[in-house]
Each structure stands twice: as C-alpha cells, then as structure tokens.
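Data availability (excerpt). The following record was deposited with the supplementary files.
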Amino acid sequence: MFVVKHFIDATALLLYTVLNLYKWIIIIAAVLSWVRPDPYNPIVRFLYAATEPVLYRVRKVLPLFFGGIDFTPLVVIFALEFLQRFLVPTLLDLGRALDPSAASSPVF
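Predicted structure:
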C-alpha cells in the first residue's frame, strides 16, 4: 500500500508545481499584454500559446472586460489557487489515509 501512497503524494506535489508554474506564466503574459511585445518573439509566442486556450474559454463563459481592462487572467489565477489549496491537500490526505503509520510525516 505504501507504493500507492507515494504515487499519490508524488502526483499531488507534481500537480502543485505545475499549477504554480502555470499561474506564473499567466501573470507574465498579463503583464506583457500591457506593452506591445514583438509578436514574433518566441517567448511571446509561447506565452500566448500556453495561456490563450484557457483564457479564451473563460472569456466565452464570462466576458470580463470592464473599462478596457481584461480581468480574465485574475479569474484563472483564482481558479488555479483554489485547485492548489483544495485538490493538492486532498490528494495528500488521501495518501496519508492509505498509510496510517506515516500520518505524522509532513510532505512539504
């Protein structure tokens, strides 16, 4: 059973890292949108390709343009933060429940 516990713990920590990285990618893309970056720059193209599919779906459901400011990245960051604070601890608790002898050892 300890193998499943370690797999779930590793999945939770990987998910935490990926969500945190994506949150920073969205923040950087939002800050870059305030200036006019070169659209042919590979970094700008990567940021656009990584964030626009998610932001587009949120914009379709919730049009969040007020006064010329797009609040969609803020909504996505809140959703990512919710997932980090709900899903990751839930997975860690699930892993601890599978191995009761390791309940006192913190993962991070």
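Summary of structural features: The chain is about 70% helix and 5% strand.
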